[in-house]
Design goal:
The protein is an alpha/beta fold. It folds into two domains: 107 residues, Tetrapyrrole methylase, N-terminal domain (Cobalt-precorrin-4 Transmethylase, domain 1), CATH 3.40.1010; 106 residues, Methyltransferase, Cobalt-precorrin-4 Transmethylase, Domain 2 (2-Layer Sandwich). 36% of the residues lie in helices and 21% in strands. It contains eight helices and ten strands. Helix 2 links the parallel strand 2 and strand 3. Helix 6 crosses helix 7. It is elongated, with a radius of gyration of 19 Å.
């Protein structure tokens, strides 16, 4: 079977529109279909960069399995499909890996572009050890599961990166302090955006601060390796 289509993984800005790459813009322009989490948000991105496009396909956590099959069929038929999320690199705490895995299993071409990722931006900004690190994504909400989730990395020797809701930062930091001890931590908020903030302290200091202080925006937490 002759294959002319392919899947392109397209990272998009996590805040600052200037962070998009030239390769990402070109991929969005040449693709036959853009698979995205929210058609309205991706539509605004395309409008901002003056990219005319009408073939947007919803691809999110609620339809990921069925949508992946449809998109893979389209690629086999010769279409180029660009996958993007609301912001950042697809598959990193966002839908994507099932589509990439499916493409690999079918022997389809996959092109992955480099670009924005809040976890990496926060890690580098934090000043924590970067020789090795573990990315954990979003932790469980229930206290017992949360403690086990953190405890799994207690003796890893790596810096640890988490995404967290702004409404649970205080509870998360308190649990981390109880499990890991008083390690150095960075709470990184709204990375690359107008109100970007990196607050550095110990787990005991910042857990107390965020228990008393409401915050908002997208939160990435980096805990030092010891």
């Amino acid at each position: 079977m002759e294959q002319t289509g392919k899947l392109i993984i397209v990272p998009t800005p996590i805040g600052n529109m200037s962070d998009i790459t030239l390769r990402a813009l070109e991929a969005l322009k040449v693709s036959d279909i853009i698979a995205c989490e929210d058609k309205r948000r991706t539509g605004r991105l395309l409008k901002f960069f003056e990219i005319p496009h009408t073939k947007l396909a919803g691809f999110h956590e609620h339809n990921e399995i069925s949508a992946a099959e449809m998109l893979l069929d389209k690629i086999e038929q010769g279409n180029t499909v660009a996958l993007c999320t609301d912001g950042g690199t697809p598959s990193i705490s966002d839908p994507g890996y099932r589509l990439v895995n499916g493409a690999r299993e079918r022997g389809l071409e996959v092109e992955t572009l480099p670009g924005s990722c809040a976890a990496i931006v926060a890690l580098v900004s934090s000043g924590m050890a970067v020789a090795s690190f573990t990315f954990k994504g979003f932790p469980p909400k229930k206290p017992g599961k949360l403690r086990k989730f953190i405890e799994a990395e207690k003796d890893s020797g790596h810096s640890i990166i988490f995404y967290e809701s702004p409404y649970r930062v205080g509870k998360f930091l308190t649990a981390a302090f109880e499990v890991l001890g008083d390690r150095k931590v960075a709470v990184c908020r709204e990375m690359t955006k107008m109100h970007e903030e990196v607050k550095i302290g110990t787990l005991s200091e910042l857990s107390e601060f965020y228990q008393k202080t409401k915050t908002k925006g997208e939160i990435t937490i980096v805990i030092n390796n010891e």
